[in-house]
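Supplementary Note 3. Input sequence used for the single-chain structure prediction.
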Amino acid sequence: MAKRVKNTAKAAARKTAAPKTVATKAAAAKKREDAVFQERLARHHDELRWLYMELYGNDAMFAELCGQMKQYYDQRNGKLKKLDAEREKKSEWYRGREMLGMMMYIDNFAGNIKGVGDKLSYLEKCNVNYIHLMPFLDSPKGRSDGGYAVADFRKVKPDLGTMEDLSALAEQCHDRGISLCMDFVMNHTSEDHEWAKRARQGDGEYMSRYFFYDDPAIPREYEKTVPQVFPTTAPGNFTYLPDLKHYVMTTFYPYQWDLNYRNPRVFNEMMYNFLYLANQGMDIIRIDAVPYIWKELGTNCRNLPQVHTIVRMMRMIGEIVCPGIVLLGEVVMEPDKVAPYFGTVEKPECHMLYNVTTMATTWNTVATRDIRLLRKQMDIVCALPREYTFLNYLRCHDDIGWGLDYGTLSDWGMKEVPHKKYLNDYFQGKTEGSVSRGELYNEDPVTGDARFCATTASMCGVESAGFERDKEKMEQAIRKDLMLHAYMFTQSGIPMLYSGDEIGQVNDYTYKDDPDKAPDSRYIHRGKFCWELVDNIGDKSSVQGGIFNGLERLEKIRRSEPVFNADAPVHTKDYSDQSILWVVRVTEDEELHAVFNFSDNVKTVWMPEAAEYTDLLSGQTKMIDTVELPGWGFLWMKGGAGRTRSRKVN
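The predicted structure, written as discrete structure tokens, is reproduced below.
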């Protein structure tokens, strides 16, 4: 009996001790997590405070920011914190040669967020491990600018799902080694945002979060120096609100109100939104319209120094709370204005930037069959520090603006206005010999300026060849499509596909039947994904099979060859034929000679020396002196390092 009582007492003691042990372990874990946060904060605190005070001079607001950072850190789940720790040890995780991205509209691709989760196996088949979900936050129907007029930064569009669905998708993706990217629209909100509604009611606190003026003289002063983004569809930079008798700054569209980052409350609240979204499991945050964030009377309100201060602070806030996050800056400018957004080695800003000018110059090369401007553009990019990471793409959700180097083109006898007209005529298929099809966007009847819209496949001739049922033209269109993708994969940085490009999807003209979309020709390349075409990818003789399997082969080669490493030096090579672009990638032991024929004609290419090369496409290694390149063909030849200096290529 005594023994039974003793055992019962021991059991009771164990039960009492168990909760204490659990509580003790939890407290110890919390203490360790707090120490991690404090160490990260200490690493950045002094610079962050200095920059914040330089911009705002407000101790109380800075203290609030630090307190909120701790709260968002505490709310970050264990899996994401573990991922943060792994990425801190491998800080350049996003720069690997295995990285391949795809951008998509959720509804067009899979109906809703849960549908994207159901299609992850297909994306893996595409070798995609980085998904950019185009804007999915709540925005007003008919006044959303494709989702870039956000009404609520913490709510998903109801027809796409919920924040819980988004978090679940992020976890599914992480389990498969896939990263998620989303757009964070910092420059403005929708006029339906709660702040805008309160401002429209005359609430001074909320009016101060935007740029409101009752005196028309001030907007007029701004207009003297600030260029218009959409001079035809949304002229001017201000919108008059008769009910409030005030003007509000609207750089993009009248329903998108510019935020006033001179107000520290705006900066703080937007950083809280950023951290909230990061905590849903986002890996890459695309900062929309970065150069426009800071406004100053008497300037062009572009690329002002304060923008860099804000981006630098955002980078540090991310490294304190969620260091696994990567910032992708949307800077649609020429290279000398783009590169500063990387910051410096000591004070970095964006992790990645879009290679915008190269994209536009690529299509200029397609139309002119002249690689000189593209080569010059590539030389500029190749001369930048190799730590800089560009996101490379042929097409995206947006139009193509012909922001080319017209100073250089002018020296070659090509003037800006007629050259833009030539490009737009060519890609609309109005020029003799053009196989491209598409439509203009934001055409200005006075200046003749316009942008261009179409899918990659339609610009390469897949649409016109299919319409004409011309087998030979279709073969050339597919060859052109694959050559351009191979050229994109050759560039340093991360290649990005636009959903549908992997199966050669062409323009969708049905957007004209939708009153909300009809005025915006960009929807021509924003059509629904054609899942029925996926059934054809197993047939290599089909358009879909030819493109899909061709891309798969290129992707496999890129992943397996060290010469495609992010830090591999890259340079272009002089060649007497202006339709041949020659790019060289170098490692200690090997060189890749990537040669691209931007013409319809067969070209004979002389290798640097008659020597043994490996054709990466066929896998064959043999002695090669010359190679015959078909129109719009390319080669990837790998040889020993140093051979390019053995013979002058002419």
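The chain is about 40% helix and 15% strand. The longest helix spans residues 2-55.
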